[in-house]
Amino acid sequence: MFLKQKVNLSKSTLIRSIQCQKSLYLYKNFFHLRDKISKAQQARFDRGHDIGSLAQQLFPGGKDVSPKSPRHYQQSILATEYLVSQQYPVIYEAAFKADDVLVLLDILVCKDGKWYAYEVKSSKKISETYLQDAAIQYRVITQSGVNLEDFSIIYVNAAYEMPEEEAADLHQLFLETSVLETVRAKQSFIEEAIHTAKATLYSDSIPKISMGEHCDRPYTCDFKGYCLRHSDELDH
Ligand code: SF4
């Protein structure tokens, strides 16, 4: 019997939940049992951060409201609310929370009183998981009262060769695709995913789920070490 976890979800924990309910439960209740992060994974995170900063320059002069630490998310949400009320032209890392789900959006743009969302990915193509990411963000942002005129994913142009000795041409480096219709079509799927994740977090025990192909799709689960060590417990 374990302590019940207070429900508090984010885009990444919902994606984790869609991959595996057991992974969500372990992450929220037994975070310390995660596998150590590899150098390759850390390098991917760092690259994602660098690309995000570069893409912000496509919309210069924005106000960055990213939290200094996870303890400061509420301040980011309040800062976002204020800037939205002022129709501030560009907001970086805009924070929203609705239905116990917190999301940050890379770039939120206000043009002629209408709002445009941009999420930046360091990949060269748009995956199904990125579309689910965007669908979660769309749901939380619109439930927070911001009507989005469009939602686009900015990603890396595979055909562009980065110059070695001069700054990259950002308008060549990045591609932009509207995913508005797709994320709208995914809203009932996301609603169900939130419902399922909450049910998992309100339960009293680790979900009994065997290892399989899902452990590496879409991401390599960071509880594989734990599950390998405890695989025999599923037989009882
Ligand atoms: S290793 Fe596989 S079964 Fe275990 S928590 Fe992760 S995804 Fe779920």
Describe the structure.
By secondary structure, the chain is α/β, with parallel strands linked by helices. The protein has a domain at 46-204. Helices cover 41% and strands 19% of the residues. Strands 1, 2, 3, 4, 5, 6 and 7 form a seven-stranded mixed sheet that branches. It binds iron/sulfur cluster. The site of iron/sulfur cluster has 12 residues, from α2 and α9.
Mean pLDDT value:
93
Strand content bin: 15-25%
The rough form would be described as globular
Tally the helices.
Answer: 9
Give every kind of bound small molecule, once each: iron/sulfur cluster
Helicity, in percent?
40-55%
Radius of gyration: 19 Å
Largest sheet: 7 strands, mixed
Order of helices and strands: EHHHEHEEEHEHEHHH
Please identify the structural class as seen in this structure.
alpha/beta
> Count the strands?
7
Termini separation (Å)? 16 Å
Regions with little confidence, pLDDT below 50 for 5+ residues: none
Summarize this, please?
The protein has 236 residues and is α/β, with parallel strands linked by helices.
